[in-house]
Amino acid sequence: MGTIVCQQCQVTIEHYENEKVAILYGTCPKCKSK
């Protein structure tokens, strides 16, 4: 199980299927619109 976390506000954006546990950083819609 992997997790996508917003690198600006640290909110969990979504979970995705993965063989390993991993954290990916992205930007959530709130931070993108700023």
From TrEMBL:
Please give the InterPro entries that the UniProt record associates with this protein: SR1P (IPR025236)
Protein name from the UniProt record:
GapA-binding peptide SR1P
